[in-house]
Amino acid sequence: MIERAFCLLQGNDGAFIVNRFDLGVAWQTFNTGSHDGAIINMVKDILDVRKLHYGNDVTVIDAGANIGPCTVGWGRHMLGWGRVIAFEPQEWVYYALAGNVAINNLYNVKALNIAVSDKSGMMKIPMLNPCKPTNFGGLSLKAQFGDPMKEQQSVSYDDDSKMMPVHTLAIDDLKMARVDLIKIDVEGMEPEALDGAVETITRCRPMMFIEHIICGKDPIMSRLKGYEAFEMWGNLLLLHNEDRATEMVKTRLSPS
After folding, report:
1. DSSP states of the chain as a string?
2. Mean pLDDT along residues 144-150
């Protein structure tokens, strides 16, 4: 008999295909209607500010999209005036992400089964069993960041039979004319993702939302000159001091 891991939930921002064995994003969506709803709504306000200052065609990069809680929420919010490019390296998680883009009719979203890194190429990543409980979004792609699955699933970083190849991409290689916001949540590879986006960040000065729980704050801040950081739920919101939208975002973030 086939083990059925995936099912459909109605969340706050739309319908979601989730893995019922996921102890992270899916669990939170099932219990609260969304994953990191406060973050999603805060960034919606930021995207409104970007539109006000720079016009339509607001562009967001979601690196480490998981099944798409941010991608779907921001994509729905920007229908008609903005777009999201979402990256997710884990194969089965990516299938759910792509399904969630389709089921919510988000024609302004592009989902890619790619790992964001410092250079474009290939890497091998561990494979998780989609039918065994774990926090799938907590998988570190490289052994140096530890094995967060050790109490749930056994993960190998050196057994080729338990790993799979995945394409990597440097954000700079997208050659995008405009980037308004970059969100990076890649379980320790945040510095590498930034190293692959130097030209884009220098040229576009996007606002950024970056998780620092594994890699720490210093490797992020040392790569981002001219940015001011705001701590938010284990992430850094980063605003460039020469971005004319920065002051309005600060005002919206300040308690009334």
Report:
1. -----EEEEEETTEEEEEETTBSSHHHHHHHHSSSSHHHHHHHHHHHHHHHHHH-S-EEEEEES-TT-HHHHHHHHHTTTTEEEEEE--SHHHHHHHHHHHHHTT-TTEEEE-EEE-SSSEEEEEEPPPTTS-B-GGG--SSGGG--TTTTTS---SS-GGGEEEEEEE-GGGG--S---EEEE--TT-HHHHHHTTHHHHHHH--EEEEE-TTT-SHHHHTT-TTEEEEEETTEEEEEETT-TTHHHHHHHHS--
2. 63
Structure tokens that stand for 98 in this block: 């792509």
The residue ranges of every structural domain in the chain are: 6-121+134-253
Q: Which CATH class is domain 6-121+134-253?
A: alpha beta
Q: Is 10 exposed, middle or buried (0-12, 13-18, 19+ CB in 10 A)?
A: exposed
**Does 252 or 28 have the greater pLDDT score?**
28
Mean pLDDT of 115-127: 97
Q: What is the pLDDT of residue 148?
A: 56
**Mean pLDDT of the 14-25 span:** 96
d(CA 56, CA 38): 24
Q: Is residue 233 pLDDT above 70, yes or no?
A: yes
What is the value of pTM for the model shown? 0.95
